[in-house]
C-alpha cells in the first residue's frame, strides 16, 4: 500500500542521509519529523569559525552534485512545498583540477579535470606507457557505468524489486569487470609505475579501505573524479547541509534538536514510534514509519535491544577513521590548491603500520584541504585555513594516546615534502580524533564510512535499507547499503524512500 498523508514518519538523525530521506518522505506527503541528538543538522558535516578562519570539519571532497540537485527539483515540484519558504537554487562550482599530488622525491602531479592536460602532467612527471593511463581511466568508466545502477542505486536485498533491465544493460560489460584481486594488484598490473600506482591505489581510502585488500572493483571510483568531475559548493561543504535543511523546512519537516532517541518502539512485528528523553523523562512519540540514520551498530545495540542483531554485519571490520588538524596558517603557498596529497614513500608499509599501531607511524600520507584557495573569506587576508588529515584505525583508545606522535609525524612530513616547516606559522589549532567523531555522531568507533571494503563481499555485507523483522522500520546513511561518503548516503536515502513508497504496511 502507498503511504498517505495520514501517515507519520520519524527520522532518527539529521546527517545528510537523514535530511535527504526526510525531504523525500515529506515531498510525497508523509508528515515527517526528525529527532537529532546534536544541536543542529549535518552529522559529520559541521563547520567551525575561529579567529577569522572557517573550517569544514568533516567531508571536504564533493562529487555527484546531481544528487543534491535531484532533491532540489523534487522539493520544488512537490505539491506539499511552501513556496515562500524555498531556498535559492543550490550553487556550486566545477573545479578545473581535482588534486595536487606530492612525493618526497620531488615528483609532483596535478590531476587536471581535462583528460589531455592530466595525461600531459603525468607523462612529464613519470615514465609510463602513454596509452596505459587512457586505458586505465576508460576501464574505470566501464566499471562505474556497469555497476552504478546495479550495485549502488538499488537495494541488493530486495530481489522482488531488483531491476532486471539494469542487470541486462550491465551484461555485455560483465566480462570486463575486475571480479578478482585487489585494487593495488589491478593498478600495478596496468600501470607499473610506482607513483601512478600509488595515486590510483589512493581511491580505496575514499571509503576507508586498504588498497592492498580492497577489491579491484573499487577502480570504479577514479571515474568519479577524472570522468565526471569534482565540485565545490557555495559556502563550503556546509553549504550542502544548509541547503538540504532549508528544503526540508520548506516541506514542513519538523526538527527536534538536542533530543536523543533512546529506543525504537515496535509491537507484533510493526514499528510504533520512538522513545526520546525529555526533561529526564522518557517520552513516547508515535509513528507509522521510523527511519534510522544513526550508525547501524548503535541502532541495534541501543535502540533495538530486544531484537536479534545481525552479528555478521555488526562484526564487519570498520572503515578507517581520521585525525584532523584544523590549522589557521599565516602566509600563502602557491604550490598548494584546494585538495593536496603528500604521499608516503611506501604505501603498503603505511597500511601495515596502521594495522599494527593504529596510526601511520613516521611517514604518513597527509591530505591538506584549503578552502580559502577558492573562498578567500574562509581565512584572514594573507592566511590560509588548512584541514590536515591522516588515516588512522577506528580505535579511539589507541589514537588518544598517540596524538603527540601523530602531530609530530604530520608536521615533519609536510616539512620534508614541501621543503619548509609550517610549525611556526600555525596561529590557531583545533583537532578531531576518532573519539570526537564517535562522541559527536555516534559513529561506532569513530569510523568515517561505516564498514570497510576490505574484502570482496563487503558490498553485499552492508545492512539492508528495510528491516526484515519490523515492518515500517528502515535504515539510511553511511553504515548501511550502499555505503559511506556523501553521494552514497544520498543514494541510501533514495533507496530507503523508494522502499517506503512500495512496502509500507
Ligand atoms: P552522520 O553524518 O553520521 O549523521 C548521523 C546523525 O545521527 C548524527 O547527526 C547523530 O548525532 C544522529 N544520531 C545518532 N544517534 C542518534 C540518536 N540516538 N538520537 C538522535 N540522533 C542520533 N565523505 C565524502 O563524500 N567526501 C569526503 O571528503 C569525506 N571526508 C570525510 C572526512 C571526515 C573527517 C569525516 C568524519 C567523514 C568524511 N566523509 C566524506 C564521510 C561522510 O561525512 C559521511 O559518509 C556522511 O556524512 C555520513 O552521513 P550520514 O547521513 O550517514 O550520517
Sequence-ordered SSE layout with sheet pairings:
Layout: E1 8-12, H1 16-27, E2 31-35, E3 47-50, E4 53-56, H2 66-76, E5 92-94, E6 97-102, E7 108-112, H3 115-125, H4 130-152, H5 164-170, H6 183-191, H7 194-201, H8 221-228, E8 231-233, H9 238-250, E9 254-256, E10 261-267, E11 270-278, E12 281-286, E13 289-292, H10 296-303, H11 311-314, E14 321-330, E15 339-342, H12 347-357, E16 366-370, E17 383-392, H13 396-418, E18 426-432, H14 434-441, E19 473-475, H15 486-503
Parallel strand pairs: 1-2, 1-13, 2-9, 6-15, 13-19
Antiparallel strand pairs: 3-4, 5-8, 6-7, 10-11, 11-12, 14-17, 14-18, 15-16, 16-17
Bound molecules: flavin-adenine dinucleotide (FAD).
Flavin-adenine dinucleotide (FAD) binds near residues 16, 17, 322, 486 and 489.
